[in-house]
Every structure is written in C-alpha cells, then in structure tokens.
Amino acid sequence: MDYQKVIDKIYSELLPRRGVGKVADYIPALAAADPMQYGISLSTLDGRSCNAGDYGKAFSIQSISKVFSFAMVLRILGDEIWDSVGREPSGNPFNSLVQLEYEQGIPRNPFINAGALVVTDRLISLYDRPKEALLDFIRSLCGNDDIYFDQHVARSEREHADRNMALAHFMKSFGNIKNDIDTLIDVYCSQCAIAMTCQDLAKSFLFLANRGTNPLNGDRVLSVSQAKRLGAVMLTCGFYDESGDFAFRTGLPGKSGVGGGIVAYIPGSLSIAVWSPGLNRHGNSVLAVETLERFTTDIGNSIF
Ligand code: GLN
C-alpha cells in the first residue's frame, strides 16, 4: 500500500476546506491558533513514515494527553483503576458535571475531563515528580527528547480552570480525589499544554498499534490485555459525545484534543495523527475527522 500517495490525495482534496469549524476559545492561548493549519503524519510498524502539510509543527495536544496519563497509571495500578473511573461512554460534553452527582463522584470514563482528573490525581500519588515522569514517558514513546510543556498555554489554562476546579472539588467531596486541588490542576493543565507535532504523535501511538510494545525500542509499555482495553475505551469514549459517530465514520480507536489534533491507529499496522485547529461543536477537529474518514475508506481497512 502506497500510504504517501493516499495521504497526498486526501490532503490536496481537503486543502480548500481549511478553516472550517471554530478554534477553541475558552482557553485564550488556544484562540490565537491559525485555523488554516493542516498536517498529517502516518507511521507504520514496519518503519515507514508518510507526511503532508504542517506535520512538523508543534501544537497543543490537550486531551490527547489523557491517553498517556492513563497508560502510565494503568500499567502500575492495573485493574484497580476501574474502582475509581468507569469505562462507559458519557454521551455528554467533555467538561460536563451532570453525571457526577448521581454516580457518586465516579466519572464515566478516563477520557472526559472528570475521569482524566482522577487519573492525573493517581499519577501525582504514584510519582514524586509527575510532570517530569509524564514528559519522560512520552519522550520514550516517540523517541524525541525535545517534547515540552508550552508554559504560555499552561498558564492560560490555569487562569481559566474554574470548571476543571469545580469537577475536582466535587469529586474530592466523594473521596475520589486524594491530592491537593491546586497541585492537581497544575499537573493537569501542564499535561494538556504539552506541545507535539503530528509526527511525534503518530510515533507515540505505535505502541498501541503494536499491542503494547514500543516498536522503536522494544519496551513493553502495557500488557497485550491492557493495550486491548485502552484501545476499546478509545473507540467507545475517545471523542466525548461524538464517540459513536467517529467510530461509525472511521472505524478506528483514537483520541482528540481541543487543540485540533486527533491520533488513531489500526492494530498490527499503523498509527496516524491529523491536526487542524477548527473544531465542531463537540470539540473535535472537523478536518481531522474528515481526513480519517477518507483514509480508512480509501485504504479499505480499519479495525472492522
Ligand atoms: N485542557 C482542556 C480542558 O480541560 C482539554 C479538553 C479537550 O481537549 N477536550 O478543558
């Protein structure tokens, strides 16, 4: 399969649609993103890399970071984590508070903000220096030691974190947050503000395509079973209240962020990252979803 040819065709056909959607504006630093940016990067397990457009520009990964923090916690705590966070789609926006009260402070899944806050809280309990541990983990996944926290985005997000703080306080009242809220919000906002390129992101998801082992260095990151479970939760919950539609359109497990990035993968084969900042009303990149829908249609392959 000539993936470069497939990507080039999709890229040139969708280029006129750049600028569709609306850049996230509830975090001021993200509102400044140029909506015309559009990049694609694909990495295969046999070592190929295919790229198009702005694939080499670093952007704010936002909620894609929830996959990394969850993988770090899952591999240490194992099934114990499911006592504190569920694995059902929420059918609600990523920052919603509504289910938490009648579900006793247990978030529906690790990929909505409430669930990710619980996961980051566990990360803080497990590591003396959680932010550094997270960067080290991601750097080793993609083989790039230059991955960094964008401090400008982190600060901007901390200054507008009222809703995330409300979620954290509310869960703490149920005993599901163990650490100090300010520390939690600081680590959470920093993880969301990690800057990566499409190329870094595609590489960093290869361990999932490779059933838990990083093909770049041979490290076992997750067990085969844990990688399966993480992929299943991405498929069912990775796109908030648009998870069903994303699965319907692309047939892939993946994760989005309000910076406009989406990473998805085909087990046993490849991972692909797409970035364009314009979002739909669910907070998912319009152009990235369209790109991935065309990709699996054009190659005639997905997980189904
Ligand atoms: N940092 C964002 C928030 O907490 C992440 C949301 C997202 O990417 N969907 O609101």
Short précis:
This protein has helices at residues 3-14, 28-31, 65-77, 98-102, 113-126, 130-142, 151-159, 162-173, 181-192, 198-204, 206-209, 224-237, 243-250, 286-299, and strands at residues 39-44, 49-53, 59-60, 148-149, 194-196, 254-256, 261-266, 270-275. The protein is an alpha+beta fold and 304 residues long.
Query: What is the count of β-strands?
Result: 8
Oligomer: single chain
The helix content is 40-55%
Structural class: alpha+beta
Report on the biggest sheet. 5 strands, antiparallel
Major sheet strand order? 2-1-8-7-6
Radius of gyration: 18 Å
How many separate helices? 14
Backbone shape:
globular
Mean pLDDT: 97
* Bound chemical compounds: glutamine
Low-pLDDT sequence parts = none
Strand content: 5-15%
The secondary-structure element order is HHEEEHHHHEHHHEHHHHEEEH
How far apart the termini lie comes to 18 Å
Structure description:
- This protein is of the alpha+beta class and 304 residues long.
- It is 46% helix and 11% strand.
- The strands form 2 sheets. The protein has a 5-stranded antiparallel β-sheet with strand order 2-1-8-7-6.
- A hairpin with a 4-residue loop joins β6 and β7 (261-266).
- α8 packs across α9.
- The longest helix has 14 residues, at 113-126.
- The protein is globular, with a radius of gyration of 18 Å.
- The model has no long low-confidence stretch (mean pLDDT 97).
- Glutamine binds next to loops.
